[in-house]
Amino acid sequence: MPIRVKIVVFAVAVFLGLAGWRGLNALADQGAPRSVLFSSREGQDMPQKVKKSEKEWKTALTPEQFDVMRKCSTERPFTGKYNDFWDKGVYVCAGCGTPLFRSEMKYEHGTGWPSFTTPIDDKNIEYRDDFSLLAKRIEVRCAKCGAHLGHVFDDGPEPTFLHYCVNSTSLDFKPEAAGKAKGPEEAAAAATETATFAAGCFWGVEYKLGKIPGVVSTVVGYTGGKTVAPTYEEVCTDKTGHAEAVQVSFDPAKVSYADLVRQFFSFHDPTQVNKQGPDQGTQYRSAIFYHGEAQRETARKVMEELEVSGKYKKRLATELVPASAFYKAEEYHQKYFEKHGVVCY
Fold first, then answer.
1. Pairing of strands 243-250, 275-276
2. C-alpha to C-alpha distances, 285 to 97, 200, 288, nearest whole angstrom
3. Catalytic residue list
4. Strands 125-130 and 137-142: what pairing?
């Protein structure tokens, strides 16, 4: 076969191959987000969607923003305004203002784009499978307006090992001082704090934590692992690294964090390693995921008190680790006891 013909055949093959991959990516992009493709997420408190026509987005965004946020392009590395930017505050979606990342979750990854270890709230992030570079990646978008933000990888630092690689163009920044003036609803929300615990099957843990006076709300989910937006079935393989956990919103004026920690230790055996009752596996481990140094120090003191009290014959196996991305579990797991009158132990 003449060399020219070989070159033409090869070029056509490459073109068709790329077209096929782009078509597959388009199908994935048009379909449901990853969290829906791999699990049932109905009933979750997702943000109300912002819907605009392409013309409206072109008017609202700069040409560069439109290219990145609506057409999934990528800004050149080391050119974004937030790449080497370390002010304290909150990064929000440039398209709709949805809070996405806190400044304390930002770190230097060295790739040339803003990098974060975890979002403010996973419900504000939408995950999609992306096949555009002949390999599967996980794209992240704003769950409210669908804006392309970037991708998430598993090459980040401990404890999450997550690396949210985000375009500066997709972000706006709200400095810390801007959040001082709060309305009544924001002030009420600010009056509560968050705590996260794991003590075996989350059905029973949620019920017991929810009965404590001063606890405002509870939600069960998965945290402490590497897999992004895992399903219950994936967590049950004991390969994702996640623990079945309960995230608690509580009023510190009615119940202190120290009291919550003491209650947490009272209703499970914290000396058992990777098990509670009949349930075994790392997903059933005992763990306190602290939110900030104040919680870490408080939990540490309570644990030291228990260690010297003589209450337990064995040493505590409870992990004391920083809070990381918390993925809300499927709706049928929420308030399981109230729905079925059954707990795990």
1. unpaired
2. 37, 6, 10
3. 165, 201
4. antiparallel
Structure tokens at 38: 């791999």
Q: Which pLDDT belongs to residue 190?
A: 52
Q: What is the DSSP string of 164-197?
A: EEE-GGGEEEEEGGGGSS--HHHHHHHT-EEEEE
Q: Which helix (H) or strand (E) holds 10?
A: helix 3-30
Can you tell me which residue has the tokens 């049932």?
40
| Measured distance CA(313)–CA(127) in Å, rounded | 45
Residue 330 identity (one-letter amino acid): E
Contact status, residue 283 vs residue 235, Cβ threshold 8 Å:
yes
With beta carbons less than 8 A apart as the criterion, state whether 310 and 226 touch.
Answer: no
Q: Over the stretch 171-225, which tens digit does the pLDDT of each residue have?
A: 999 987 654 545 554 445 457 899 999 999 999 999 999 999 999 999 999 999 9
What the block records as the tokens of 71 is 């057409």
Q: Scanning the structure block, which residue is given the tokens 């996980």?
A: 138
pLDDT number for residue 135? 83
Q: Given a cut of 50, is residue 34 above it in pLDDT?
A: no
* Burial class of residue 293, CB neighbours in 10 A (0-12, 13-18, 19+): exposed
Averaged pLDDT, 60-70: 93
